[in-house]
Write a structure and sequence with these properties.
Blueprint (H helix, E strand, L loop, with lengths): L6 H13 L19 H15 L12 H14 L10
Length: about 90
């Protein structure tokens, strides 16, 4: 991810590039379901986010909004969470 991109902007850029969505239809309160993304598309989004940030976008469903996804990425970047979510206990 380029240093000057916010997590929200990075996600919207990925959505435009990968899923041919227009910037006009992307808004923070839009759910992935509203945007027509199914579970397979969300998996592809998660892989792309991980490739660009080194952090996984786990737990996002079609009912989540773009703002919620961006908050997840921002929190992981801020805490430096590892790219894996495996339990070590």
């Amino acid at each position: 991810m380029a240093d000057d991109l916010t997590p929200y902007r990075m996600i919207t850029d990925v959505l435009c590039r990968t899923f041919a969505l227009s910037e006009e239809e992307l808004r923070p309160d839009a759910s992935f379901d509203e945007l027509g993304l199914d579970s397979l598309a969300l998996a592809e989004l998660a892989v792309t986010v991980e490739d660009e940030t080194g952090h996984r976008l786990d737990g996002i469903t079609a009912g989540h909004t773009l703002a919620q996804a961006a908050e997840t990425v921002a929190a992981r970047l801020a805490t430096g969470m590892a790219g894996t979510t495996a339990n070590t206990a």
